[in-house]
Amino acid sequence: MKNKKGMNLKRLKQLQEIRESETLFHLATRSSDALRRKEEERIQGDYRKDFAIDSDRILHSLAYSRYVDKTQVFYLVHHDHITHRILHVQWVSKISRTIGRYLNLNEDLIEAIALGHDIGHAPFGHDGEMYLSRICQERGIGYFQHNIQSIRFLEKIERKGRGWNLTLQVLDGILCHDGEVHSDNLCPDRGKDFHRFDQEIAEKERNPSLVLTPMTLEGCVVRIADTISYIGRDIEDAIRLNLIRRADIPKTCVEILGNTNGTIVYNLVTDLIKNSYKKGCIGFSRTVSDVLKGLKEFNVERIYHNPRIRPDSQRLERLFKVLFDRYVKDLKYNNKDSIIFRTFLDSMSSEYREAHTPEEIVRDFIAGMTDQFFLRHFPEELWPGRAQVCF
Known about the structure:
Shape: globular
CATH superfamily of the largest domain: Hypothetical protein af1432
Distance between the termini: 59 Å
Helix content: 40-55%
Radius of gyration: 22 Å
CATH topology of the largest domain: Hypothetical protein af1432
Strand content: under 5%
């Protein structure tokens, strides 16, 4: 394919791939290594590299647009400067691409994994994930896990059930991104194919505590950058909401990493680059790794488990159950006036409808909701109370 000036776009792509082979670290992932489940659906003549195509597809997905009104840690809080998931995802993308640039890794692959890694999150952050998982277990459809749900959205729900046909390397990075898992040193589990990928999903569905390892260095970078992006930012948000004081940050962390999000991010990224450069694994120095682990424990105790950020949690969990039961009933009685038909199921392919039970369809519908869309299903007097924080 040529443009009006005669430029051969296929040749342009080849030149980009040659540049990758000459400049990337020898253990980095080449775009030419990209694998798709449906190879026959590759776009012929496209001059973009495969992982760049995946970034574009994720950015244009409906699930990506819903990031904007999904909360991260703090929900039901009136404050314009508290992190929403869209900001977290952008920070993960920026931080991981910075790391990848200095380690000479594939930034297109890093960006695609980072942009898609949290697409499967339910409304109301990890609390919403916990409530939805309990309901799913009670209804006999297993655990709800946001990383597996991200794969469902991208492979089985987007584009009316056809999915985006993303590359294995991107999907694997999203599946294995568990940022809550602390890793001193993360070495890629290379040599995966789609058969192995599907096996890992099945194993993770049965055992949520199973820790999966990305198949690429780029996936390892995103997983660690996930932690770097939230650890200090959650502290800043908690300080803004008067849940903690800056003086509460552990002394060892202040001495090694600093006491602001900016210094924490800078020092973590710097240590990671220094200790991972030209190596086959991604990791921190022992000192920094130990301090980061302690900082995670501080955040869990003082922020994530702080009862002041869980306003009326029992009521919110009841609303999840009410909504789930309502839509299962609507599906079983074929109530075409229900919003689950009008805004979700009516546009879905017959393949999706036939492959999923009513409970699984409802799980997918609720998981895709933003916080406000969820609340709009109930009269305002039934909404849970606001967080008891002061600013």
